[in-house]
Amino acid sequence: MKKLVLLVLLTGSFVSNAQEINCNVTIVSDQLQSQQASEKQVFVDMKTAISDFMNGKRWTSDIYSQEERIKCNLIITFTKSPQQNVYQGNAQFQVIRPVYNTTYETIVLSYVDRNFNISFTPEDRQMNFNEQTFTNNLTSILGFYSLIALTVDYDSFGKLGGNPYLTRAYNIANLASSAGQGGWEQSGDQRNRYWLVENLQNQQLLAFREGMYNYHRIALDNFTIDPVGGRKQVMDLLTSIKAMQQLKTNSVLLTSFMNAKNQEMVNIFSEATKDEKQKAFTLLSAVDPSKTELYRKLVK
């Protein structure tokens, strides 16, 4: 298991029971017109409330040290405020993982949420939340993000290790969808939160989740001692992704993975043989055509 169950020191003390998530929250509200001082304070309070929720809530019974907490970035950009206390915009949520025996950190997933629409009042600073009942859209989104972070992080340390958290994320999505909240619909935009969790559960994409372990735990964690074997693992995953894209076109999960990994992929294959570079370029430009010029560096 990735996490320490218990670290007993000679003194008899033990690791503190820290929360699992360590999220850096940024709120951008510059696009909202004519903000008064009181309105600006709302976003200060909102950032504090969101940070406290993300970093203060426990989701597992596992024991984490401070250094083991899962790093995340949450960047929220508000573009509209159609009425008082109502804010509309988008968000980017990134999950970050350390690579063993290095100082390098890899972005596991980079999800763009195009429907981050919430209400927030001074009373909402309490951030009431219940996994089994829909309370409000903001806490549902944050709870969902937290469980998605746990899902992909645990998947990267053990094959399908994130299953318990994925089930809970799916439950939050269903509750919010039943409450008629935007960004959770099963119809319409297949890049929304519902489709992210659907993709993670979809049997057609199961090879991707299994590949997350191979990519991170076998390839990256051992890359300094076995770069040839590491590149083979990455190539195998790219081959699987290409096949999965034919079954599940425009998958938000696969897109979010490639958004996180495009530059890293170039770095991984930068010291490969000429033939490997050509094969990697062909695969990368096929699965992520919008970044073809970036991948072309491999064959120049």
Automatic annotation (TrEMBL):
Keyword Signal included in the entry's annotation: yes
Leader sequence segment: 1-18
Organism: Emticicia aquatilis
Keyword Signal: yes
Name of the featured protein: DUF4835 domain-containing protein
Keywords: Signal
Top-rank taxon: Bacteria
